[in-house]
Each structure stands twice: as structure tokens, then as C-alpha cells.
Write a structure and sequence with these properties.
single chain, mainly alpha, about 80% helix
Length: about 150
């Protein structure tokens, strides 16, 4: 790969690494919001992640185009390009770990809320017993002697 192509790849890799770091930061923001029952902040963080993923998709597409404009064969990559791509792969792996953690916590929170809803729907036998006792017919007579 030519020196110009390697520097173009380097620019794309740095942009991708920066976006992957932002993706990890948004995952932390979403986790924080999830832990504090703040749905607006959580939804904003998820929307931010969607925006970052769209930008990352564009960067990866540009990187693929740049590599395709080179020699066309992955085996022809010079050591510098291979190092850059390995750096990007490590950043992507870290972002994937943070994503999996966020998804796991979101599932756990979803299950917690679902269980709380199910507990509220289920009849409460003690409350029903008191409810029945309070609606029992009372005597309509009035006694002066007790």
C-alpha cells in the first residue's frame, strides 16, 4: 500500500477509534441513567449511541473504500496498516464489551420492572380479605341499648 493510502487509512482508523471511545462513553452514560431510573437520560444516551454508530458506519465504509483503492489484496498490507487495523480492532473489542455490559444491565432492569408489574397485578390475599370485611353488610337497625 502506498504511503498516501497508509496515511488515509490512518486518518480513518483514528476517526473510528475516536468514535468507538465515544460509544463506550455513551454506554457508561446509559448505564448511569439506567441505575437511577432516569428514562429521559437513558433514551438520550441510546439515541446518541445510534448517531455514533451511524458515523462509525460511514468511517468504516470509507476505510473499506480506501483499502479497496489500494492494491486490493489484504496480504499486500504493509506492517503500518496492519498495526493501525489491529489498534482499531482492539478499540472495537472494548466497545463491544461495554455494549454487552449495557445490554445485560438493560435486560436485568427490564426483568426487574416486569416482575414488579406482575407483583402489582397479582391479587393480594390479605388486602382482599380486609376489602371483603369492609364491604360486608352491616345491620341497618339502630339500637339505643347497645
Amino acid at each position: 500500500m502506498s504511503r498516501t493510502a497508509t496515511s488515509a487509512v490512518a486518518l480513518h482508523v483514528e476517526a473510528a477509534k475516536r468514535l468507538l471511545q465515544e460509544l463506550e462513553e455513551q454506554a457508561e452514560t446509559a448505564l448511569h441513567a439506567l441505575g437511577h431510573d432516569n428514562s429521559d437520560e437513558f433514551l438520550a444516551a441510546v439515541a446518541g449511541r445510534d448517531d455514533i454508530l451511524a458515523k462509525l458506519d460511514d468511517v468504516v465504509e470509507a476505510l473499506a473504500h480506501e483499502r479497496g483503492a489500494g492494491s486490493g489484496t489484504p496480504s499486500a498490507d504493509d506492517p503500518e496498516t496492519a498495526r493501525l487495523l489491529a489498534d482499531m480492532a482492539r478499540a472495537a473489542a472494548a466497545a463491544l464489551v461495554s455494549h454487552e455490559h449495557l445490554a445485560s444491565q438493560a435486560r436485568r432492569e427490564r426483568d426487574r420492572l416486569s416482575n414488579a408489574i406482575q407483583r402489582n397485578i397479582r391479587p393480594d390475599s390479605v388486602a382482599n380479605q380486609y376489602g371483603l370485611a369492609s364491604t360486608a353488610k352491616r345491620s341497618l337497625t339502630f339500637s339505643v341499648t347497645g
